[in-house]
Amino acid sequence: MKKTVARLGAVSATAMAMTLMPLAGTSYAAGCSSTGCDNLGPKATGCETANVSTRLTIDNNDRIAELRWSVGCSAAWVRVTNKSSNPLYNSYGYIEKYDSAGKLIRSLKVRVPESGSDWSNMLGGRNYYYRVCVKFVGNEYPLKCSTKF
């Protein structure tokens, strides 16, 4: 009787573990969609890997801003990279969201790091237009923005 209970317990534990383990090639849905992604992080929600492409890129004195678009989440964000050998000037990357009439709805920013890359939270929805900008603190360089996507 004890052997039967022990085997049954082992089988139950194995079955439970198997239901919790992902199968190879299993695709998981992202954690948000469309406007539900507004101000959420692309990495935390899984949107950074949900069929992502770079739609627009601008360069403002070696501070690169890319408009990243996730088809799987219907959301966009700005990824900024500092390729300058002179990190003296503080700068920010922005993503802006516009309605069909061209009215600015919302913008988010992220500081350009002294080296490497960083990204903003997302703005979502297919029926909107987006653009990215790079702005320096002070008046060293003018604001530079992409066209709208």
Description:
This protein has 149 residues and is of the alpha+beta class. Strands 1, 2, 3, 6 and 7 form a five-stranded antiparallel beta sheet that branches.
Q: What's the gist of this structure?
A:
The protein is built from 2 helices and 9 strands, in the order ααβββββββββ.
Distance between the termini: 69 Å
Instruction: Quickly give the structural class.
Output: alpha+beta
What is the subunit organization of this protein? single chain
Query: Low-confidence stretches at least 5 residues in length (pLDDT < 50)?
Result: 2-28
Rg measurement, Å: 22 Å
Number of strands: 9
* Helical stretch tally: 2
Please give the largest β-sheet: 5 strands, antiparallel
Q: What string gives the helices and strands in order? A: HHEEEEEEEEE
What portion of residues is helical? 10-25%
Layout of helices and strands:
Elements: H1 2-20, H2 42-45, E1 52-60, E2 63-70, E3 75-82, E4 91-98, E5 104-111, E6 116-119, E7 123-124, E8 129-136, E9 144-145
List keywords for this structure.
single chain; 149 residues; alpha+beta; 4-stranded antiparallel sheet; 2 helices; disordered N terminus
